[in-house]
Amino acid sequence: MPGLNASPPFPTDVPTHPLLVVDYKLIKSGDTDEIDKLWKAATELGFWYLSNHGAEEEVDGMFDMGAETMDLPLEEKMKFEQGDDGLSFGYKARGASATDEYGNLDTVEFINVAKDDALAWPRQVHRAYPSTVNAKMENVIKPFVQKSVEVNTTLMRVLEGKLDLPEGALTQRHTIDEHSGSEARVIKSPPRPGGISEEKVAIGAHTDFGSLSFLHNRLGGLQVLVPGTETWQYVKPIPGHAICNLGDAMTLFSGGILRSNLHRVIPPPKDQGKYERWSLVFFTRPGNPVELRPLTESALIADAVAKAPEGKYQAGSTAAQWFARRIKNQRIKNRAGPETWRASRGMEHNPSAI
Ligand SMILES: O=C(O)CCC(=O)C(=O)O
Ligand SMILES: [Fe+2]
């Protein structure tokens, strides 16, 4: 991986927020203590480390694919740009999205590959991709997508049980076959040239748009805003550990019991900031036609909804509509003013929900 092996370790003198470590193997084997730990992480912060996930090899292959793609001439990458209509799949150039209501620009470029395109390859479901993506679709991207879907489905099944939902209430809303916004993303952030402030936001504060994100970081830069605090804190990457976090759809389905927490990306701390930062995410999102509403067939969820302000967890939209609205309104070309940014917001714009 470019710049990764050579880069300095995460500094010891920077405050970090420790996440709970959830062991995927123990979760899979039904270990009740581990399941309780996952539940605690999912309801209190909505972020946790995942050890023993078994996807390291696929992750390395994806980083290579990302590096090859970002090395293409900009003109070539732009042929596959995600565009301004609310489609996420494809290439996103640096500065194509706002990071806040003032219209400051993001500093990252990334490539998003739809789960549906990877699994149907060589048939095209949503769109075409650069040659570097096509070349690795079968042997790298597809296995990574399959592994990620397996991990996220296992975690979701456990959360479904803890929410007292009937079997399948969550997993059937996220089947591997139904078309959805689920996608794999490789992100490249440039080194901090000539000392841009550490506070120069690379990806603005947001909650994730879908259900469950499976994230792989090498350098620092990811920060969370812990509930009840006002200072952003770094999440330190731990070798061999993924970072998992919940998105808005899970907050809506669970009537606020599950938490989709605010996070952002800034340049890596201290000496790490001199290096390129690479990250990889698989986003599991509900099937396109799935209604985003509380699943009140669980008494636990019905009770949480009854105690919340009326309609708070009724998105009034399908997963596909929610996702397109959020993407479209953060594109800088669509920006009319702060109202455009506000129109891109999800549960992070609902302070009592976060
Ligand atoms: O790069 C990271 O560490 C996080 C990326 C992220 O939050 C996102 O793409 O939604
Ligand atoms: Fe995110």
From TrEMBL:
Protein name: Clavaminate synthase-like protein
SUPFAM superfamilies, per the entry: Clavaminate synthase-like (SSF51197)
Region spans: Disordered: 335-354
Entry GO MF terms: metal ion binding; oxidoreductase activity
InterPro entries named among the record's database cross-references: DIOX_N (IPR026992), IPNS-like_FE2OG_OXY (IPR044861), IPNS-like_sf (IPR027443), Iron_ascorbate_oxido_reductase (IPR050231), Oxoglu/Fe-dep_dioxygenase_dom (IPR005123)
The keyword RNA-binding is assigned to this record: no
Start and end residues of each Fe2OG dioxygenase domain: 180-286
Keywords: Iron, Metal-binding, Oxidoreductase
Similarity comment: family membership: Belongs to the iron/ascorbate-dependent oxidoreductase family.
Signal peptide: none
